[in-house]
Amino acid sequence: MSFLSNIFGSNETQQTTFLDHLAQRRTIYSIGKNVTAKQQELDEVIRKAVRLSPSAFNSQSSRVVNLFGQAHHDFWNIVKNALRQIVPAENFQATSDKIDSFAAGFGTALFFEDQNVVKGLQEQFAAYADNFPIWSEHSTAIAQFAVWTALSEQGLGASLQHYNPIVDEQVAQKFNIPANWKLRAQLVFGSVEAPAGEKDVIADEARFKTFY
């Protein structure tokens, strides 16, 4: 029985499918490489999720770099080396273990926002200039969530990380990233090796108001 069936009863309809996928998507830290889907198939899943994600003024400012195989490991080596410079040596083992747990995954999606698109909109619609950087953040968040949910639908686990800006320069050099692409987040994904724990949800009264 699905998450929604437990709430609303067993008469689940096709219209509840999307909400089921939202309930299934969780932060999974224990991931691995036991993935049956091909890299090309997951690459297309990610691309399609981003293409279908809405953006302010249909700006389509989100950019994504998908890393598999050695490229995936190269990225997490960049992160580890960057952290080695700022984390005290006596505390680094825990940091190293955490990064290794991400490298154990199957792939990583790097999310960027094209600042040329943002600046172009600011020039074209001057009255909204201050809002476009904010709306750009909304756009990448939507794209990240769409990809995360789409990967969950494929049976994969993922967690969203933010090692920008400390790795921005090295990542740009390694993967030939245009200067106008601004790194915003990293979604690491792979097989689910251990499920997520129970998720605490605050009371509706603290989050919602409804008026009729």
Keywords:
212 residues; 5 strands; 45% helix; globular; disordered N terminus
Structure description:
The protein has 212 residues and is of the alpha+beta class. The protein is 45% helix and 17% strand. The protein has 8 helices and 5 strands; from the N terminus they run H-H-E-H-E-H-H-E-H-H-E-H-E. Strands 1, 2, 3, 4 and 5 form a 5-stranded antiparallel beta sheet that branches. Helix 3 packs across helix 7 and helix 4 packs antiparallel against helix 5. The relative contact order is 0.20.
Lay out the secondary structure.
Elements: H1 3-8, H2 17-24, E1 31-32, H3 39-51, E2 62-68, H4 69-84, H5 92-103, E3 107-114, H6 115-124, H7 132-153, E4 156-161, H8 168-175, E5 181-192
Helix pairs in contact: 3-7, 4-5
Helix content: 40-55%
The radius of gyration computed from the alpha-carbon positions, rounded to a whole number of angstroms, is: 19 Å
* Low-confidence region ranges: 1-12
Q: What is the average of the pLDDT values?
A: 93
H/E series: HHEHEHHEHHEHE
The secondary structure category is alpha+beta
Query: Please, how many helices?
Result: 8
Shape: globular
Intertermini distance: 33 Å
Question: Tally of extended strands?
Answer: 5
* Proportion of strand residues: 15-25%
Largest sheet: 5 strands, antiparallel
Summarize this, please?
The chain has about 210 residues and is α+β, with helices and mostly antiparallel strands.
